[in-house]
Amino acid sequence: MPETSMLKTERLVLRRWRDGDREPFAALNADPEVMEHFPATLTRDESDTMIDRIETRFEEYGFGLWALEIAETGQFIGFTGLSVPGFKAHFTPAVEVGWRLSRSSWGHGYASEAAQRALTFAFDDLELAEVVSFTSRTNLRSQKVMRRIGMTNDPADDFDHPLLDEDHPLRPHVLWRMTAEHWRDGIH
């Protein structure tokens, strides 16, 4: 299994989680604007449980959602990485690239830069054939990142998230894909 404890980009470090990440991660998850496209904000306990679950997934799969920090300052700004969706849909089983960043770090290209690094790991180290990403139809910021990193969307792939009630406004989701072949062709 490839070493997954730390990945780097020019400006960012993607690393395993530390106890010191818990407080800023809880603040990020409690921010209504950051969590606008999720069913609810998270409490501190829910946020801590999420970190524990992420770390368990690293042990289980050999990859996960890395804590994300700015290399120059060491400032924690969120997460970016790979996960296995925990629900059944027409595209599962799959590996997803995802991110969640603090509001103060938006607009600097960090999500795209970190997602590109996670995709490089997925295709070059894990040798995956495909990586997906998905979000609510209303999350245009994340869809811009998906487009920027070279993923493609076929509206026929879009789906209703099975873990949300039928009348939930966030239930309609878009699915974006990146194949290893597309990645290697340099269209990213």
From TrEMBL:
Pfam families: Acetyltransf_3 (PF13302)
Keyword Cytoplasm listed: no
Domain N-acetyltransferase: 12-181
EC numbers for this chain: 2.3.-.-
InterPro entries: Acyl_CoA_acyltransferase, GNAT_dom, N-acetyltransferase
GO-annotated molecular function: acyltransferase activity
Keyword list, A-Z: Acyltransferase, Transferase
Top EC class, one word: transferase
Keyword Cell membrane recorded: no
Protein name, as recorded: GNAT family N-acetyltransferase
Organism of origin: Actinoallomurus acaciae
